[in-house]
Each structure stands twice: as structure tokens, then as C-alpha cells.
Design brief:
663 residues, seven-stranded antiparallel beta sheet, five-stranded mixed beta sheet, alpha+beta, 25 helices
């Protein structure tokens, strides 16, 4: 791949992961892997400065403001620090500082993994709380800040103006308590404290913020009127005396050896802390020295952030079992000798499929190296072959389903084995859990744990039985299978409400192989009701956007199965909506064959609202710009998508032009 092509690919990759991390609080890769992408992009930019986009992610802070919160401009831009990844990088930083300032003193502190928050005080009273946003404009979350117990609402010294910067986080205790509540409600548990804290701080209801128990550590004084300080450590000591929780266990250091020793100490104890960290920060302590060192075009020259590599540990594969999913996919799982890894106990890891097992050559009895991708998802890195016991044998997946005994078949052209049984309990259990999920019929408050209990107690055997639960309300309350009065009523109300969903949710919930949320929306936009969809041929389906032969055949095969048709007929008799509201409300197909890409923040429309309008007129909303893009709908702070559209000569429109197009 050419350097320029790789550069464009990195722009798209980093933009995608920035959105997942900063705006959606759902990262897909670890910080370490993200940093490697950024470093690769920086290297290419340094070699070819003539190719650099003006809005390159290497030169600005990421994140957008949510429309529900008011926008607030930062007094002091919230900038990022230069990341370093090795001992040599740290020593080079200290050396550069010492060449200009031989007597420089450093402060080494923990880099808290949370969401940045700027607090403003006037005459000693808290008056504003602002998230990072894009570093220039943030979100005003004052009401939520009032619900955070460790944020002082007033301070003893009534200075005219004080602005401090800190990191909101969720402690181990708060995180565990929040997950206990999720389990009690039968809802999905939170996997990552940083994302949970970020999502909580952006809640529109301050009661939720108070309930989840956020905390904050203040790590910097941004502005202080009416008082003078000479060093960073001095500012934190004063802030602590004012009632702020400041950077914990900060270490002073004078030499590179002392700085590195402090970094190692933090790394050695990081998993024993009751809060998450993702690195260590090294700062020049003297405030006047910081001014002398100044800034580069991107970052301050007086500080760096050292990023620890993901924690890795050895363990032993004690067994390999096969799990059966809702579509019948058979997934091998390695059962491990339990280890503590990135704060949690890890006792199993997915081995994906037979090809993966063969490639890694993993066997029962092997010693393997484990880490957590993004400090969340257990991941096997490699087998330690030199520790392999004698007489181990290569693992081969079974040719029959381990749950129902039906024949297992490998999908044509695929890598996964599937159970072919018509009545496999494992498939039915997971299929029903998926049917009620947020992505499908969206039965709020009704989770997999409740489904499992209802199946084991004989209340439900198939999807339509879910809608018959209302007839057993009194028995459900009396036996407490899923909870008492309030919980049962909430579940039954959610079930009843789901009957009126558009059929795209029903199509998603049926669990047709290779048909997800987006594909279901396309089907609902092109077929007036379930009957017409069930009658569609594979050739017809292949004419729809993004539908190939495999998906088309999977759909026709699904509806050709008598068991599936019987389920749909039962749902129809119960009163579940079978008509497409998308087709019924569609005015025309003026956008048919057109692809729109949205970027930036629109004045009034949310992205999902604009996407729904485009789709309702027969168009497609895409996440990336290409030569096939018809229009780019751009708002404020549009990013690399706008630049790419300009380079490709694609028509760019704003919200006003878009509204004219849909009049």
C-alpha cells in the first residue's frame, strides 16, 4: 500500500475511533492500539507534509458537544499532552528540558482515566462546569456537577475568579454498585469505568449522576485571580486546603532516573487502585519555567504523558468448550486457570473458530499469554510453545452441536460452524434474548437474565410466548421469577408497547443470519408488510442497496422454514405490527440512488434524525466519503470528511440547503 493511501486510511480509521471514544463513549480498540495508529500517521505526515490535511487529528483535540447541553467556550484551551511509550522517550524529554533549565524540578502524577471537567468559581462559589468538547468549545454540565460529591460547591477563600481542571471518574465501589443495579434490572452490565463515567456525566438527569457516585481529581489550576503561585505542586497543595480532591500521591523528581522510578512505581500499583489510570504524567513544576519552555504547534513542551502497555499475564488452558449462539453459530471458548488481569478475574477467552485455533495452534494444557484489549475484552496473544506439556493433541471442533446433537455444518465460503437443529435450546434461549434487546424490539427493563429464568421455569418456550406473559401476571408476581409488582408491570408494559414497533425492529429481532439493524431498515423501506417480504425472491432482494447473494439467500431460506413462518403467524395473531411504517410514511423516492455523508454538528437536526429523513426519501446515509457519495451534509466543526469531499469535488450542502431539498 502506498504511503498516501495508508495516510487516507489512517485519517478515516482515527476519525472513526475518535467518534466511538469521545462522542459515543464506546471505544472498540485499546488506548495503546489507538496510540500506535496516531504514531504511524505522525510519521507519514512528517515525511510528507504536503499531504497533511488542515484538520488532521494529530493537531487538534477530539470530541464534539452534544446538542442537548449548552455550548460554553473555554477560557483556556483544553489541550492534549505529547504521548510517550518508552523509557528512552522519557529520558529524552528530561534531557531536552534540562538543556534549557538545568535546575528544573518535575512532578510525576497518575493520569486518571475518566472525562475531563473544567470548574469555574466566582467569589468562592461554583458557577460553571464544562466538559472538554473539542478543546475550544465544551458542554455546560453545571447541574450534573452539583450532583458530584467531591466537587466543592463553595471554597473558603472568596477569590474573584478561579478555574481548575480535573478528571471525573468512577471508583471501584461506585462501578460495582452500578453493575449490581444493572443486574437487578436484568440489563447489560457496564464493562469500562471510563466510558461509564463519561456517559454518566453527559446524562440529562442529574439524579442519575448522583445515583452512580462519580468523583473527581483536580490536576491543574488554569486561572487564579487574587492569588499568586510559583509552582504546580504549590497550587495543588492550596487547592487541597480549599477542599478539592487533587492528584493523589504526586511525586517530586529532579533527575531522569527519579522520574522513571516514579513512573515504574505507579505502573506497579495501578491495578491495586480503586480508580482507573491510563498512564503517568510528567510535568515541569515551576510555572515560570513552563512559560519559558512554551509550546510547539500542537502540545506544551513542559509535559509528557507516558502510556503503559496493556497488562499481560500467563495462564493455562484447562479445557476448550463450544458455545452455541442465537443463529446456531458454534464458538470455541478456552477455559482458563483464573488470573487477575486489568482489575478483573479472567477465566475464559473466545477462540473464534477452527481456523483461528489452527493458526494459533492452541491446545488444552498450553500456557498462553493473555491481555485485555482496551483493558476490557480478554484476548489471547500467543501460545508459549516452550512450556507445552508432552502428548498434547491439536484441537478439532465437534461435528455435532454440543447442546442438541444436531449436525454441525460450515457455512459456504465462511469460517464458522453452525448447528443445523430445528429445536436447539441454546439457539432458542439466545434468540429470545436478542429479540427483546435494545437493538431489536427494545423491551426496556427486560433482560437476558429474566429470559433465562422464564425459560427454566417453563413460562416461555419460543418468541411468541413472550407476548402471552400478560396472562400469567399474578403468578409471575407471586413467584417472583423476574421481580415483584413494579418490575413485572414494567416488563409487561414494555412487551405490550413493542407490538406497535415498525417492522424493521421485528425483522432485526427475528435473528436472520447476515441481517442486522441497517439491513432491516432497508427491507422495511422497500416492503409494505411482512407478507410481501416473505414472498420476495433472492433476485429481488439482491437489487436492494448493499444486499448481496449471501444475505439474499439467507433471508429466503429463513422464510422458507415452516418453523419461522409459524412464529410470524403467531406474532401476527397476537397483534404485533406487521406493516412497514417506513413505506406508509414515505412521500417519494427523490433521494433514490443517492448517498449522503454527514459530518460536524448541524444547527437543529441530530445525525440520526437527518439520516432517518434521507432514508425515508429512499436515500442512503453513509459513514465515509467516496467517489460514490452524492452529497456531504456539513455542520459546525466538520472534520476530515469535509476535506476529502472537497478534494473529490463532491457537492457540500448545509442544513438550510438540505431542508430546501426535502420541502
Amino acid at each position: 500500500m502506498s504511503s498516501k493511501k495508508r495516510m487516507e486510511e489512517l485519517y478515516e480509521l482515527i476519525a472513526y475511533h475518535n467518534q466511538r471514544y469521545y462522542d459515543e463513549d464506546t471505544p472498540e480498540i485499546s488506548d495503546y492500539d489507538y496510540d500506535q495508529l496516531s504514531l504511524e500517521l505522525r510519521r507519514i505526515e512528517a515525511e510528507h507534509p504536503e499531504w497533511v490535511h488542515k484538520d488532521t487529528p494529530t493537531q487538534h483535540v477530539h470530541g464534539e458537544t452534544k446538542r442537548e447541553f449548552k455550548k460554553v467556550k473555554h477560557d483556556v484551551p483544553v489541550i492534549s499532552l505529547q504521548d510517550v511509550f518508552s523509557k528512552e522517550d522519557v529520558y529524552d524529554f528530561v534531557k531536552r528540558v534540562k538543556e534549557e533549565l538545568p535546575n528544573a524540578l518535575f512532578a510525576v502524577e497518575k493520569k486518571i482515566d475518566g472525562l475531563t471537567l473544567v470548574l469555574r468559581y466566582k467569589n468562592g462559589e461554583l458557577v460553571e462546569a464544562i466538559t472538554r468538547g473539542d478543546g475550544v468549545i465544551g458542554e455546560g454540565v453545571f447541574e450534573n456537577a452539583l450532583a458530584i460529591r467531591s466537587i466543592p460547591k463553595t471554597i473558603p477563600e472568596k477569590l474573584p475568579y478561579l478555574e481548575v481542571r480535573g478528571e471525573c471518574y468512577m471508583s471501584t465501589e461506585s462501578f460495582e454498585a452500578a453493575n449490581k443495579k444493572q443486574l437487578k434490572r436484568g440489563e447489560k452490565i457496564y464493562q469500562n469505568r471510563r466510558n461509564s463515567a463519561a456517559g454518566t456525566l453527559r446524562q440529562l438527569d442529574p439524579k442519575i449522576v448522583a445515583e452512580r457516585g462519580l468523583d473527581i481529581f483536580i490536576f491543574n489550576m488554569e486561572v487564579c485571580e487574587g492569588k499568586h503561585f510559583t509552582s504546580h505542586i504549590e497550587t495543588l497543595e492550596w487547592l487541597s486546603s480549599m477542599g478539592f480532591a487533587t492528584s493523589p500521591n504526586l511525586t517530586k523528581a529532579q533527575t531522569a532516573d527519579e522520574v522513571w522510578a516514579a513512573i515504574e512505581d505507579i505502573g506497579n500499583t495501578r491495578w491495586d487502585l480503586n480508580f482507573a489510570i491510563d498512564g503517568a504524567v510528567v510535568k515541569v513544576d515551576n510555572l515560570d519555567d513552563r512559560i519559558k519552555l512554551g509550546m510547539t504547534s500542537k502540545v506544551p513542551r513542559w509535559a509528557v504523558a507516558y502510556k503503559y502497555p496493556p497488562e499481560q499475564k500467563e495462564t493455562v488452558v484447562e479445557d476448550i468448550i463450544v458455545q452455541v449462539g442465537r443463529t446456531g453459530r458454534m464458538t470455541p471458548l478456552a477455559i482458563l486457570k483464573p488470573i487477575r488481569l486489568a482489575e478483573t478475574t479472567v477465566s475464559r477467552v473466545t477462540l473464534n473458530n477452527q481456523d483461528y485455533i489452527d493458526e494459533k495452534d492452541v491446545r488444552v494444557g498450553d500456557t498462553i499469554i493473555m491481555q485485555k484489549a482496551g483493558d476490557i475484552i480478554p484476548e489471547m496473544l500467543r501460545v508459549v510453545k516452550e512450556k507445552r506439556p508432552a502428548n498434547t493433541i491439536a484441537y478439532k471442533m465437534p461435528d455435532r452441536c454440543p447442546v442438541c446433537g444436531a449436525k454441525a455444518e460450515r457455512e459456504e465460503g465462511g469460517v464458522h460452524l453452525h448447528c443445523t437443529g430445528d429445536s436447539c435450546p441454546a439457539k432458542d434461549n439466545r434468540a429470545m434474548s436478542y429479540f427483546i434487546s435494545k437493538d431489536a424490539m427494545n423491551m426496556d427493563g427486560f433482560g437476558p437474565a429474566a429470559i433465562e429464568s422464564l425459560i427454566s421455569e417453563g413460562y416461555i418456550k419460543s418468541i411468541p410466548d413472550i407476548y402471552a406473559l400478560a396472562d400469567q401476571k399474578e403468578r409471575l408476581i407471586e413467584e417472583g421469577i423476574v421481580g415483584k409488582d413494579k418490575t413485572v408491570n414494567n416488563i409487561l408494559n414494555a412487551i405490550e408497547k413493542s407490538k406497535s414497533n415498525n417492522i424493521d425492529r421485528l425483522i432485526t429481532g427475528l435473528g436472520i443470519r447476515n441481517v442486522g439493524k441497517q439491513s432491516a431498515k432497508v427491507l422495511a423501506s422497500n416492503y409494505a408488510d411482512m407478507d410481501s417480504l416473505m414472498a420476495a425472491t433472492a433476485e429481488e432482494l439482491m437489487t436492494l442497496p448493499d444486499f448481496g447473494e449471501v444475505a439474499a439467500n439467507d433471508i429466503t431460506s429463513f422464510f422458507a422454514d415452516k418453523k419461522n413462518r409459524d412464529i410470524i403467524e403467531r406474532l401476527k395473531a397476537i397483534g404485533v405490527n406487521m406493516k412497514s411504517l417506513s413505506v406508509a410514511s414515505k412521500k417519494d423516492d427523490r433521494f433514490a440512488g443517492m448517498t449522503f455523508v454527514l459530518t460536524g454538528t448541524l444547527p437543529t437536526l441530530k445525525r440520526d434524525e437527518a439520516s432517518a429523513i434521507i432514508e425515508s426519501f429512499g436515500g442512503k446515509a453513509s459513514g465515509s466519503v467516496s467517489k460514490k457519495t452524492s452529497y456531504v451534509l456539513a455542520g459546525d466543526e466538520a472534520g476530515s470528511k469535509l476535506t476529502k469531499a472537497q478534494e473529490l469535488g463532491i457537492k457540500i450542502i448545509d442544513e438550510n440547503e438540505f431542508m430546501e431539498m426535502i420541502k
